[in-house]
TrEMBL record, chain A:
It is found in: Cell membrane. GO terms for cellular component: plasma membrane. It is a multi-pass membrane protein. This is Putative branched-chain amino acid transport permease. The chain crosses the membrane at residues 18-37, 49-75, 95-119, 126-145, 187-204, 238-261, 273-304. One of its GO terms (molecular function) is branched-chain amino acid transmembrane transporter activity. InterPro entries: ABC_transp_permease (IPR001851), LivM-like (IPR043428).
Automatic annotation (TrEMBL), chain B:
The chain crosses the membrane at residues 12-35, 42-61, 67-87, 99-124, 144-169, 196-217, 237-260, 272-296. It comes from the Bacteria. It comes from Thauera linaloolentis (strain DSM 12138 / JCM 21573 / CCUG 41526 / CIP 105981 / IAM 15112 / NBRC 102519 / 47Lol). This is ABC transporter permease. It holds the Pfam family BPD_transp_2. GO terms for biological process: D-alanine transmembrane transport; L-alanine transport; L-isoleucine import across plasma membrane. PANTHER family: BRANCHED-CHAIN AMINO ACID TRANSPORT SYSTEM PERMEASE PROTEIN LIVH, HIGH-AFFINITY BRANCHED-CHAIN AMINO ACID TRANSPORT SYSTEM PERMEASE PROTEIN LIVH.
């Protein structure tokens, strides 16, 4: 929470307590406000929360440990497909949610370690390309593993995935409070996801100031020096990959259950880049940054969709830039301009353990 | 036996295109230590510009000879790509030359997606058929082995370009300046080399090669669309790493080897995996090779640089 208050522009510095309450109230009230604009906006908020989890996880890898991972969405895919395999009519297996979710996370973590081992020695740009290749390999397998044995159902994807079921409480059904008043399932999902995100933030915050987090920071800033002071960089890198992947896996499982449908299309390179842009936009190595980046960049395209399309219609008579193009344009421009103009992101990470003279350099990472 | 020779030819054709693209990667990497992620998309811009020009020419002068048409299309595509390469370097990468190591790479990724998006706006999402001006009727030099005139021209032209580039780098003044800059920026500039100009020139040459490669790639497959540059770009990068990044000969060797591996792999994967995997897995060979090279011989076949450089 202390980290998060820096996301509130003016209040954060002056009155952290008030900022904290503001965030809590906003987080709780957001879907109710969104509901006023229509059902779909609550859905968008639900997805924004999933993106937050992804951004938090990728931030572990990129921001904390300094390993640029361009195939992060592969872990999301592993989580989602695990859920789809184990809780859908596709194989006719319907395991309970509380078994599938940890399994999804575990498989994703395993994939993270599998990716981590070969790339341990690589740094920077090479690592980026190899992880990108890994993401593509996973996607190619998802697309083509419907022959000769149908495992992933190819480009059609897997349908009718079981919804999230918390001890017999089905989140996909509206909650009937009284005869006349019921809570829409989108709200139920929202609050459940919010709980997950809050849990993740708490965990990551503790992690950041732990021995592991400090080791990552040391490794990111100077790998050789980190080795010299006795940090086992190999294990630390593997841990970063697998923990980051775990978040991706959990988010993926939630995504599969929430959407009820997974297909390779949702796990394209563009999504990896989108999540990376969120982290970069918000500020690498910083929890508040990841949250704000995910929130802004998940919502902005949707807002543009609502504003820009009618605007173009009135101005030019036709839709020149369709929403998907707008989203790509926005993300790519955000990435380039952030790097050129404000490389430390909207909310620069505070250098926790650096001396004052190193702060500038640290912030620029 | 015929299949073997056929795969060899296919591999050589696609390998020479990869080699041309890889040269662009490797030159920029050699000088700046930057993976210019957007290089593949410059290729796409080259192909689509050429396509646009040909469409225009076909409308204006339908009776024009295909050779002239192709030449004019190239004459338009190359300057467009050169401008693009120059602008990218000038507006984005130059400002980031002293930035932390991840910044230029992230910018390059953004640039790649920006180019794709702009191309999507200009040319739409559809696949366009690329006019095959040179005959694609296969010839049969050996019974059962097919090669089209387009493929012959691709191999010949890329060989000529590679020889030309080698001469440029080893024999001319600017080539020497390029090598000096790659060796050490600061010392080169102390010796009176205008390193900024040399770096810009490198981007320009790389972009011109990408334009040619784009036209070749599109002619070979007969299609062009906004995302076509991504895969060959990635594969060419793999080729550059395989040959030893920063090394021109390595890029050529790596490109041709990658083309051969891919073509043989696609041809035989079904036998090797007992029908479990088929040729739709063709694209994963490049990534597997990339992984293996980086793990076991990160310097590549001919390179000297260490992989730790970031």
């Amino acid at each position: 929470m202390n980290e998060l208050v820096s996301a509130v522009p003016w209040l954060g510095k002056r009155n952290p307590m008030a900022a904290r309450w503001l965030i809590i109230i906003l987080a709780l009230a957001a879907p109710i406000i969104a509901w006023q604009f229509g059902r779909s906006w609550v859905r968008i908020l639900d997805f924004a929360l999933l993106y937050m989890m992804l951004a938090l996880g990728l931030n572990l890898v990129v921001g904390f440990a300094g390993l640029l991972d361009l195939g992060y969405i592969a872990f999301y895919a592993v989580g989602a497909y695990t859920f789809a395999f184990l809780a859908s009519p596709h194989f006719d297996v319907h395991l309970p949610f509380w078994i599938v979710l940890p399994l999804g996370a575990a498989f994703a973590a395993l994939a993270g370690i599998m990716l981590g081992f070969p790339v341990l020695r690589l740094r920077g740009d090479y690592l980026a390309i190899v992880t990108l290749g890994f993401g593509e390999i996973i996607r190619i397998f998802m697309l083509n593993l419907n022959y000769p044995v149908n495992i992933t159902n190819g480009p059609q994807g897997i349908n009718m995935i079981d919804p999230i079921n918390l001890f017999g409480w089905d989140l996909s059904r509206n909650l009937q409070v009284t005869e006349t008043f019921s809570i829409n399932s989108l709200f139920l999902y929202y609050y459940f996801f919010l709980l997950c995100v809050a849990g993740s933030i708490l965990f990551i915050q503790r992690l950041q100031i732990s021995r592991v987090g400090r080791a990552w920071a040391a490794m990111r800033d100077d790998e050789l020096a980190a080795k010299a002071i006795g940090i086992n960089t190999r294990n630390m890198k593997l841990l970063a990959f697998s923990l980051g992947a775990t978040f991706g896996g959990v988010a993926g499982a939630l995504f599969g259950a929430f959407q009820g449908f997974v297909s390779p299309e949702s796990f394209s390179l563009m999504e990896s880049i989108a999540v990376l842009t969120m982290v970069v936009f918000g500020g690498m190595g910083n929890i508040a940054g990841a949250i704000v980046g995910a929130f802004v960049l998940a919502l902005l395209p949707e807002i543009l969709r609502d504003v820009a399309v009618p605007l173009q219609q009135t101005l030019f008579g036709t839709v020149i830039l369709d929403p998907e193009v707008l989203r790509m344009l926005l993300l790519s421009l955000a990435m380039i301009l952030m790097m050129l103009l404000r490389p430390s992101g909207m909310i620069p990470a505070r250098a926790r353990y650096a001396h004052a003279e190193n702060m500038k350099r640290e912030g620029a990472q | 036996m015929e299949t073997l020779i056929q795969q060899l030819i296919n591999g050589l054709v696609i390998g020479s295109v990869y080699a041309l693209i890889a040269l662009g990667y490797t030159m920029v990497y050699g000088i700046l230590g930057l993976i210019n992620f957007a290089h593949g998309d410059v290729l796409m811009v080259g192909a689509l510009t050429a396509l646009q020009t040909m469409m225009f020419l076909m409308g204006v002068a339908p009776g024009m000879s295909p050779v002239y048409m192709l030449t004019i299309a190239l004459m338009v595509a190359i300057p467009v790509c050169i401008t693009l390469g120059f602008l990218m370097e000038r507006l984005a990468y130059r400002r980031l030359r002293n930035a932390p190591r991840l910044a230029p790479l992230i910018t390059a990724i953004g640039m790649s997606f920006l180019l794709q998006t702009v191309a999507m706006i200009l040319w739409g999402r559809n696949y366009h058929t690329f006019p095959q001006l040179i005959s694609t009727t296969p010839m049969q030099p050996i019974e059962g082995v097919f090669i089209t005139p387009v493929q012959v021209i691709i191999i010949a032209a890329s060989a000529a370009i590679m020889i030309g580039l080698s001469l440029l780098v080893t024999r001319t003044r600017i080539g020497r300046a390029m090598r000096a800059t790659a060796e050490n920026h600061r010392v080169a500039s102390l010796m009176g080399v205008d390193t900024n100009a040399v770096i810009a020139f490198t981007f320009v040459v790389g972009a011109a090669l990408a334009a040619v490669a784009g036209v070749m790639y599109a002619s070979n497959y007969g299609i062009a669309h906004y995302g076509m540059g991504f895969m060959p770009g990635l594969k060419a990068f793999t080729a550059a790493v395989l040959g030893g990044i920063g090394n021109l000969g390595g890029a050529m060797l790596g490109g041709i080897m990658l083309g051969l591996v891919e073509s043989f792999g696609a041809g035989y994967i079904e036998h090797l995996t007992f029908g479990f995997l088929n040729s739709s897995y063709q694209d994963i060979f490049a990534f597997i090779i990339l992984g293996l090279v980086l793990i076991f011989k990160p310097t590549g076949l001919l390179g000297e640089r260490v992989s730790d450089r970031a």
